[in-house]
User: Fold this.
Amino acid sequence: MKVKINGKYEEVGSTLNITGLLISKGLSCERVVVEHNRRIIPKEEIGAIALKEDDDLEIVSFVGGG
Amino acid sequence: MEDILKIGDRSIKNRLFIGTGKFSSYSLMKKALEASQAEVVTVALRRVDDTSKTDNILDYIPKGCILMANTSGARNADEAVRIARLAKASGGGNWIKIEVIADNKYLLPDNMETLKATEILVKEGFVVLPYMSPDLSMARRLADAGAAAVMPLGSPIGSNRGVKTRELIEIMVREIKAPVIVDAGIGKPSDACECMEMGCAAVLINTAIAIASDPVNIASSFNMAVKAGRLAYLSGIPFGFMQPSASSPLTGFLREE
Assistant:
């Protein structure tokens, strides 16, 4: 299925949840925050959310800035 | 008596705030932050990329520092609010620097959108520090909306041109009860000192430290300059006399009158 990740559509496995997606990208759940269809996902909920076709995800983390 | 800056529920001793962008490495940034003795440190939020897999910037910020995420990248109030909420969820605490920039040429802030975002985020319990073009009426509106401080620019972001907006900032310092923190444009320790001599509550520096040949020593130098300027301000700087006044006695020496 296709989901939108940080503005770009990507093909991902149809049974993937958000935790699985982060692991597949080499990202730690602790380090990032995920917005799922405009809703910020609390860290404790992240494993419970399954992905659906056309879901829109923003995955962000802190970087240097002034 | 100790000179403390109160913002939100925090008491801050060091009036030098530091931004973490543009350093050549996180380890160098950490050394500069330590040398500066800064207590307030800004970070930004971005979409993850390959570097997100390895280094975590938060590991390089000295323990005990107050983290202030900015909303850089926001072009309007809605985006700023969205970024602020994400930053809080990322463990950035509830301090937020509102930065709304719709102008890509000069990178000047949009004060109206900044006010809208401030109103929303104050109600959500954030400690809001809006970055703004220096304007007395807008600073009043921001303070009335509950901004914990107002942060006028000295000159455009990253320009290192110094405090070109001095007269407007001086008016803000005189008229606004909330702390006035000069953010952006400060290029040299003497610029930071100038802001503090004017009575600004603090300064926020990033580029001038990050891109110096020796960020660690210049961070230390900014720390001293901010302290010197603050102490001078508290000492009551005597200036503005039109007539000269001799420092030494002029009469009764080597001459008969």
